[in-house]
UniProtKB/TrEMBL annotation:
Similarity annotation: Belongs to the UQCRQ/QCR8 family.
Organism of derivation: Sousa chinensis
The protein's name in its UniProt record: Cytochrome b-c1 complex subunit 8
Known function: Component of the ubiquinol-cytochrome c oxidoreductase, a multisubunit transmembrane complex that is part of the mitochondrial electron transport chain which drives oxidative phosphorylation. The complex plays an important role in the uptake of multiple carbon sources present in different host niches.
One Gene Ontology biological process: mitochondrial electron transport, ubiquinol to cytochrome c
PANTHER family in the cross-refs: CYTOCHROME B-C1 COMPLEX SUBUNIT 8, UBIQUINOL-CYTOCHROME C REDUCTASE COMPLEX UBIQUINONE-BINDING PROTEIN QP-C
Amino acid sequence: MGREFGHLMRVRPVITYSLSPLEQRAFPHCFSKGVPNMLHRTQACILRVVPPLVVFYFVYTWGTQEFEKSKRKNPAAYENDK
């Protein structure tokens, strides 16, 4: 009854499997396939994401400037005061 990796432990209602840390590859193909895939996916969705962000940025800055202008008093209304 030899025990090997993947069949080391058995609990009655639950069966668990495990691998040796020396038999696993933590980041297989991370740089050879992962980075090009990330760049490809970024290029694919950038035209859907960036234009609304730019529009909302300009609307926000315009609204902030208009709010600051509306808080100022009109100097022409106080020309005749002493």
